[in-house]
Amino acid sequence: MMQKNFTFTDYHKLDDALPELWEALQQKVSRMTEQIGDKSPHVAPRDTGIYDNMSIDWWTSGFWPGMLWIMYDMTGETRYKDAAWAWDERMERKMIEKNRFHHDVGFQFLPTSVIKYKLTQDPDARRRGLAAANFLAGRFNIAGQYLRAWNTTENKNSWNHENTGWSIVDSALNISILFWAAEEIKDPRFSHIAKAHADTVVKHFIRDDGSVNHVVNFDPLTGEYIESIGGQGASSDSAWSRGAAWALHGMANTYRYTGDVKYLQAAQRVAHFFLAMLPEDYVSHWDFRANETLEGEPRDTSAASCTASGLIEIANSLPENQGRPYREAAKRILLSLTQNYGTWDRPEHEGILLEGTGNKPTGTNIDVSLIYGDYFYLEAIVKLLGWKNRIF
Fold this sequence. Notes:
By secondary structure, this protein is mostly helical. It has helices spanning 14-36, 63-75, 78-84, 87-95, 105-120, 123-137, 171-174, 176-185, 189-205, 241-258, 261-276, 301-316, 320-340, 371-384; strands at 43-45, 140-141, 146-147, 166-168, 215-218, 225-229, 356-359, 364-370. A hairpin with a 4-residue loop joins strand 7 (356-359) and strand 8.
């Protein structure tokens, strides 16, 4: 594909920019396919623009192949399918070795095995997706009605060493693999667990004002709620923006699978808080309560892109006139990401969005490209273009 320079500064509405943006994304992801190759990317620093290469069991390993599958579905170009095909097989091999798989297997196997099966009917992909759902279901604590976060580490100095009672808001989006498994094999056990965890998210993670706890600690024996832990937010009572994105998108998906309006209402509550807290350019700071003015605090484009995709889910779940404000809000976020945070003028840069924030409290991965930010940006754009085979 001939290199073309894309600038989106003259557009005032995303709808007007979509044809050119889709052309730009095809060019960008095509180039990323050559640049990234078999790497399992997580972070690309702003200065180098080169994505790292994480272990295949790292929680972000599904997002890049997920982008490839989306591109295959949207374009029919087999090179994307060929590049994506082996990822779930690689992860399955890691499953039988010492590994770090945990609550994020939904992030890993939904955009690899599950979408691969949906698009190709490959029986091994189906088997791997169901195995991942089984794995996630096995992390369910019956007493506390939650999916356990992370694994016990051997490092007693680690901040999350004693975490058998911990649950994490990220799992609100991972439970989509349980709903898929329940539908695929007509076994409601999986959806029972997913709904029970979703109920816990609504009760203990989403606050009355729509802000969200990141980590909640339960007594693993009795299931009793103990406390909220700050996690990647500024504090235990702050408002980490990506946590809100996980909850919003996850609860919107849970409504899509269950039809239970309480989950849609929970997603809307988070959405209203998120949108009310946005700065003038509609791209969220990393934590809405990092300080009183947020002056000098970094943005998190990954929170913005995931939220935009979740807002589209909310819009799709409502009558047209009620859903329009959510869809238009998503478009405003996406237009700002496109105009102000894209790498369209940097063909050597392997990411799409700049100014992602990975973990501000630890000073890790600030003002970087994050592969999940890129994934949800692409996911949101193709939803607006009519993509139907969504997996989250």
